[in-house]
């Protein structure tokens, strides 16, 4: 009895420091999430009769969602964005930049780093408008294009997802670059030198010596950038508004449109629930890979 | 003979290294220029009294800056941005250091599972949570309160903060603290005296990224704050968007430049003090 | 694991008590509250608007000793204002006592019971007789009670480059009689000036409500008996010939390249380009736009243009077959009172103050609005406030209003989908129309549509 008390006591004191964070997240994150899950089974709306007298509708929102072709298109666009912008774009380019900067001349490295980080650190609205002015008709790209006789005035209309992918790479690569710079920096000199003495080519050293050592950083960074990209919202709203049609409406945009524009709050949060699910699936994949790596 | 061979081999490596350096520098510079291009418009438009989206339409004057710098649209909102960003970043750092420590040190199923759950929460689009959050704010009577807004933004930043912080602590050898316990320090004492100083770089990373994201956050303060004198710069930037969808691009760009300076300065200063290389180390090792 | 489940259940229970799905007003403060909160959209650098509101505050506080008018400006553009205002109205403690609503927002607010009927207050207000009857309709709910007092309205017409139209033989006062006449002028412009866009009409999703009201509805309500909604049967109309004809007009415009390209029409910044670049640079001959278009060219406007009066003319938009001299659509904002207002008598005093003859007039002038009161309609100061005021006030007699139902905003989104698929050529007119009919039925309920 006493010993059990003691154990609980020790347990409590061990975990006391966690309390402030847990309370904050319970009240302001978990609470709203639970509300949202509940609301997704009702027809609650922002305005109109069901704003004050919502009814329980069971799975109606989810059924409607799975009947809506726009929903599947939206999942597809979201996965495309994660694949090309987060996984391929930010991570590969970030790694490439980290390698380049480790060997480049110091002044070039310093200036380049500042520029790349600038794109990441400037406030959201500012970054989004820079991207808009860059890709819009009569904007920077269009001007350069007409220099070479190309008509690039309708990029936002013809290739909305490509533009969003590129803009998100521009905004987010700095994060991956810094992570990989740090990780590569941590690779012990001796290991690399041993490889050099064995006569390994630089490419080989990178892929078969350095990469395995920083594999954990890579997987973790993949997960972080995936989750960040999944919630990209203002960039899309400012660049294309989700259009033309629904050609760039990823899940967060679709959820927002339904909840606020069409006032179908219950339906909107049902879409958000699927968004979390997708984030969860990606995360589980990465974590599995982390785990197997640990066992090796 | 021996020494001669060694010499020539070294020389070959040296020139090879130089070529690598030049090639890498050029490629890096080219990418950096591409990254700089979207920022050009900002500078060109800010000084152009008749700015559009174009970079060829040029002009030069300080009119845009003159018209955006006023207490109501600039001074006060920037001050509010500072309060919100500083409060949120500090709170995230403190709470995540406290929470990450036991999570990193006492590896139990509960702690690793709960960590995964809170991490998923970080991918939630905040826009979809706004309605219940507003409801909670009303019930707790903290609508239109800067403190309340800080509490919420900190909660939203915590999953990422705790995750990165835990990884970092896990990469610090426990022997260091154990040595401190022997000296009679309490766990919290050990945390404060041994771990925190070691974690300074990581703390800086989390502080800066939280500060930056709060600095640019429009939606949360817009929804949760009512009084105009409490609105941050991310909201007051909408002064340059007209009633019928017109945008005063010149003023928008000028305001954007001024609004970006503080956050860039903070980054540059801390980067030169701590150096971002070591800052990131460990925070994603897992 | 059990512990986690338990704590989740506990948290759920806590949240459910914290945040009821429906807002149940806990009733704010005392009935004798002497403070009235006024919410309004603060968009852009419209200092005349702010000045006007501050003046209302001053007058109100001077006339009602001890009372305070607390201003709650919502700094935002477009939809954000409505989103925040709806959230504010969900709970009594944050609901403003008086608020400004776009006329299309009023109906949903009435259904949500966010706003209170004003009839008993209007009875005792002598100025109410001055409002035009059709304008009074805008503020009414289905129950026949009045919930909103119109702050002013707007009208729409054709703005054109005089020099370009002169080049195809159009001089002096010009008023196209029919759609065909308008299209033939557009074709002539295209022939004579191949690099000029003849006629801009807002369409598609990117233009949102502008593209519906200022584009499609300008067409539909100019057809004989054309309408979206049968207000006597209280049903939405499907399959009408008028709807099809309107889509056909858009189809012609884009197919013959008489208007913007589909790409240009899909640019959210189109509304900037028309007054900011295309008209001043002579790249566009005609645009269907609101009466406020010239405000951006006045001194101090976003696109100051000294010579605009020399270059630009304005006229009415024709009906399909010339059965009326012209047609136009009207919208505008209303002032409404919260159903949760603690001191409703005092709250209505705020509406009275802001709608005194002098304040109403200065609002019309400052905001480029069209007068909705008999005692100001012919006021000299008002009519001379802008060179276009007299004309756009005169054409208000041809005005149509959007269907006054709470479903309008959702239907409007369906229309923008239809016009978008026609303008991009993704669907034929028939396909777009049958898709509209199907989605309309699912949006408003199949029992609420009527085939015409």
* Secondary structure category of chain B: mainly alpha
* Tally of individual helices of chain B: 12
| Number of helices in the DSSP assignment of chain C | 20
Q: If you compute it from the alpha carbons, what radius of gyration of chain C comes out, rounded to the nearest whole angstrom?
A: 24 Å
CATH topology of the largest domain in chain C: D-Maltodextrin-Binding Protein, domain 2
Determine the oligomeric state from the structure. heterotrimer
Q: Which two chains have the most extensive interface, and how many residues on each?
A: A-B, 101 and 100 residues
CATH architecture of the largest domain in chain C: 3-Layer(aba) Sandwich
Low-confidence stretches of chain C: 23-31
| Low-pLDDT stretches of chain B | 1-11
Can you offer a commentary on this structure?
The complex is a heterotrimer of chains A (296), B (286) and C (452). Helix content of chain A is 79%, strand content 0%. Chain A is mostly helical and 296 residues long. Chain B is mainly alpha-helical. Residues 1-11 of chain B have low confidence and may be disordered. Chain B starts with a helix and ends in a 6-residue tail after the last helix. Chain B is built from 12 helices and no strands. Chain C folds into 2 domains: 34-154 and 331-401, D-Maltodextrin-Binding Protein, domain 2 (3-Layer(aba) Sandwich); 156-330 and 407-451, D-Maltodextrin-Binding Protein, domain 2 (3-Layer(aba) Sandwich). In chain C, the strands form 4 sheets. In chain C, strands 2-1-3-12-4 form a 5-stranded mixed beta sheet. A 4-stranded mixed beta sheet of chain C has the order 6-9-5-10. A 3-stranded mixed beta sheet of chain C has the order 7-8-14, covered by helices on one side. The longest helix of chain C is centred in the first third of the chain and has 17 residues, at 2-18. Chain C is globular and about 70 Å long. The chains are: A mainly alpha (296), B mainly alpha (286), C alpha/beta (452). Chains A and B meet through α2, α5, α6, α7 and α10 of A and α1, α3, α4, α5 and α6 of B.
